[in-house]
C-alpha cells in the first residue's frame, strides 16, 4: 500500500533490519577523512574534491562546496572539518574546532556556520578524540543552543587497517638505536628535536641513528615555527651529520620498511590535534616518542606503550606559546629552548629503556595491542555504516533533535 508521503515522492525511512540498506554517500578525497570513515563500506561512497574556500579567503576555511559533476543524488554527506553548503543532510567529523573560524567568532559567517550545525540537516557532529570534544564543548558553552549542539556530539577515534602479524624488527641488540621521523611540516612535528638528538649522541658517544623522512617545510607554512631570518640554518646543517639519514619523495612501501626497522618513531610535536602517524607507528609495533599535547596523551602511556614527554599547555591541551608573536627573537629563543629540552629528555629516556631489552620488547607489544584494540578498521566499518542509516532515519522521521545514539567505540 502506498502512503501519501510516497505518493508525494518524499524519502522514506529506511528499514535498518531488512537486508542492510545501501546508501549513496558523498565524501571528501583528502587524507584525514580516510582515518575517520569506513575503510570498507556496504554503502556506495563517492569521494569528490571540494572547493578549497580558504584559497579565496582564510576566513572561509570552515565551509565547503563539493565538485558537482557528474550530477548525482546523494542520500547524505560525510564531511570532515569543513561544513558543506548544500541542502543534502550531512554528518561531520572534526579534529579540533568546529566550526573552523579562527578570529571570526563574532562574525555573520561564524553564526551562519553554527546555524548549519544546529539545523536538522546536520545529523551528527563527530569529535575524533576527547581533546576535540572538550574544545567543542568549551567553544559553545555560552551558546543558548548549547544543549542542542551537545546532543548531536559524539566521539569516535580514527581507524586504519591493522594486520594480524608478528613484529618483524631484526634486532640483536648490537646495532645503533634507530629513531625515525616522518613529517613534512618539519619543525612543527618535531624534526628539529630528532636532529638535535643525533648531534648530542655524537658528542656523547651514544650509538644512535636518526632517519628523517621529510621535505623539510619550515617557516610561514606552519603556525608554530619561528619567523626569525636564518633561524633554521643551524638545523639544516645537522642534516649532514654522519648519524642522520635524510630521504624524501619515497614511496609509502619504503617509508613502512624504514618504520618497521626503527626502535622508536618521533612525534615531539608543537601542535598536532591527533597525529595519525602515531597510529601507523604503533600498528607496526613501533613505540612513539610524543609530546603531551592534543589527543596524544589519550592513547600513549608513558613507559608502557611509548614515551610521553611533558609540555606546558593551555586548558584545551595546546602548547602554551602557540599564540605568541612568532616574528620576535623572544619566541625564537623559547622555541630553541624547547627543542633542547625535548632532545635531552628523549635521549635520556631511550638510553635508559634500551638498557633493559625485556622492558623495551614489552613496550613494542603494548604499542601494537593499543593500536589493534583502539583503532582497528574492522570495528569502525560497522560503526560508520550503521550510523549512516540510523542518522538518516532520524532525519526522515523528524527525530533529529533527539540527539545521537551514543554507540560504543573500540578502546
From TrEMBL:
Residues 1-21 are annotated as: Disordered. Keywords: Transferase. SUPFAM superfamilies: UDP-Glycosyltransferase/glycogen phosphorylase. The keyword Transferase applies. It comes from the Bacteria. The keyword Repeat does not apply. GO terms for molecular function: transferase activity. It holds the Pfam family Glyco_trans_1_4. This is Glycosyltransferase involved in cell wall biosynthesis.
